[in-house]
C-alpha cells in the first residue's frame, strides 16, 4: 500500500473515520481537475490515472500543469500515473499499489464531431477502455464506481424536462453518445449479474465555467465545439464571431435552449455520488437484498432549467464587458430546439443541488479564458 | 504473402477470376466449420483465427478436430491460427501474412445464460474483441466484413414476421443480445464515417442441424441451452427428458414458436453475403456515392416460418424413431410466444433462400449427435 495521509488529513464519509482512497481516471481533464480538487478538499487520498490525450500543455512533465495547479490550489498532493485505461497490465499494477474504496471513471474522448469521423477511437477508448477498467476492478475486488455519463444518452428528448425515467439509447445522433449509452448498459448488466457492485452514472448536461481562482478550466485546444468556450474565445478576440446554428426554433428567442451546469456544481455532484456509493453495502450472498443484483443508479446533473444561445451571449457580454459578434447560420442536423433536466432525483437522493448561476458560469469561464490567454502570450 | 492455391483451385466471384482470400474468425465453431466448408467448396483460400474457447475436443492439437474434419470433407486445407481476436499484436501479424479480400467475423461467446452471469466476458470477447479486429482491419486496409449478428437484436418482437426494418436494441433481454446490437451499431458508425467500408450483418434466427455427413456439428459440451440439441440428447438417452417452458402461450399448441434455420442454409447465406460484399466497390474520395458513407446492410437469415416446441419434438421423434419425454414447466422470464423472420430481403438482394426443411434439420442433428455419441464411447 502506498503511504497513507496523516491522521489530520483523513478523508471522512459520514461518521466513518477512515482514509478514503479514490481512483480518478481522466483526472487531468476538465471535469477531472475540478473533481480531484473537490475530493482533496474533503481529505480524500486521490490517485489519478490519465493518458494525457486530452491535455495539450504540460503533458511532457512528470505531472501535467493542470494537476500541479490542483495541488497548488489545495495545498495537497495527488498521486499521478500516466497510464492508458486500455493498458490492463499497468492498470492492474496501480490496483496493487492502493486499496481503492471507489473509482470515479472520467477517462474518455468527448468530442461529438470527432466521434463521427473516428468512431473506432471512441469505441476503443470509451467502451473497450471501460471494459478493461471493470475487469481490473473485478480482479482486485474494487466494486464501487461513479461513471461520467452524459445527457446525450437520452437522444432526442421525448418530453421536457428530462428525468432519469426518460428512455435512453434511442435516436442518439453520434458515436460519442452511443459510447456513453453502451457503457451505462454494460454497467447495468454487471450490477444485475453480481450483487456486490454499486454503480452511479452521472448524466451531465452541459458543464461550463471554471474554478473561482481561474487557474483550472477546460483545455482550450483548437476550436471549441461547445457554446461557452466558443463565446469566450470570441470575447478575448481569439475568434472573430460566434456562429449560431438556427434562430427559428420554437423557443422564446428562436435559438436553441440547453441546460448548463457550472463545473464546480458538477464536481460537488461527484463528491455527493461518491459519498452515497461509499455508504452502500454490497449485498452478500444470503443477505437481505441479495439476488436482486447490485445497485445501479443514474442521476441527472444539470441546473434544471434551460438558457438559449442568446441568453448565454448576453450574459457573457455583460460579465466580460466585451461585445460578442454573432452570425446566424443554418440549423445543424441532429440539434433539437430545447433540452433541459429534471434534477430532483439527485436533490433527493444525493442531497446535492446546482447553485451557481449562469452569471457565475460566464464569469469564471471568462476569468479562466483570460488567465489562459495571458499565460499563452 | 502465404502460398497461393493452384490455378485449378482459384476462388471465383462472378466473372472475376482471382484467388479470393477470406479470414474467418471463430472458424472452428458450429457456424464456423460449416461456413469454412462452404467457402472451400467455392475454392476460396480460407484462413481461420480461433482461440478455441468454444471447442471442447481436439483443442490441444495443432489443428482442432473440427477443422480437420472440414479438411477431410473438402479435400482441401485451411490455414489455422490459434489466436484470440483481443490479441491485437498477433492478429496484426496474420494480416501481414495474407492479403484478405474480406473477413467473416464469427468469433464470439454465444450462451445467453452465461452472458447474464458473466456479462464482462461477453463485452470483452464480443464487443471489445470486435473493436480490436476492426482496428487491425483498418490498419491493414481490409474494409469488407460479414458479421455474425443475431435475431436477438430485435428484442421482443413488435410485429411478425420480423423484417430488417424492425427496431433493434430495445427490450433486448440479455447481455449476449446487447453485445450483438452494440457491434451492429459500431459497424454502422464505422460505415457512416468512411465510404471505403462495406459491412453485412447477418441476423441469424435459430441455427440447427448439421452437415449431411454427420461429421461436423454443434459442440455438445455440457447441457445444451437450445432446444434442438437438448431434444437430440434426450433422444440418444444422455438426458432424461425435455423441459418445455410454458404450454399456455397464444400459439397453435401453446408452446413457443421459433424460426429454425438449417446450418447448411446458414453457411450458404454466408457465402451469398461474401459474394455480394466482394462485388461492392468501396466509394473513393471524389467518386459518385462518396460522402454518403460506406455500405452497411443487415439481412435476416431464417426459414421465414415458425415451428413450435412440440412440432420440433414430434419431428425429431419421427426421424429418430425414439420417444422424447417431455415435462411442461413454467414459462421463462423474457421468453416470447412467437418469433419468426421475413427473409425476403435476403432472397432479393443476396439471391439466397433457406431450402432445408425441419425434417432435414432434425435428421442431421440426430445423425451428428449419434456420430458424436459413438465417438465418445
TrEMBL record, chains A, B:
Its cofactor is NAD(+). It comes from the Eukaryota. The keyword Isomerase applies. Keywords: Carbohydrate metabolism, Galactose metabolism, Isomerase, NAD. It catalyses: UDP-alpha-D-glucose = UDP-alpha-D-galactose; UDP-N-acetyl-alpha-D-glucosamine = UDP-N-acetyl-alpha-D-galactosamine. The keyword Membrane does not apply. Residues 23-363 form the NAD(P)-binding domain. One of its GO terms (cellular component) is cytosol. CDD domains: UDP_G4E_1_SDR_e. Belongs to the NAD(P)-dependent epimerase/dehydratase family. This is UDP-glucose 4-epimerase. It comes from Daphnia galeata. The lineage of its organism: Eukaryota, Metazoa, Ecdysozoa, Arthropoda, Crustacea.
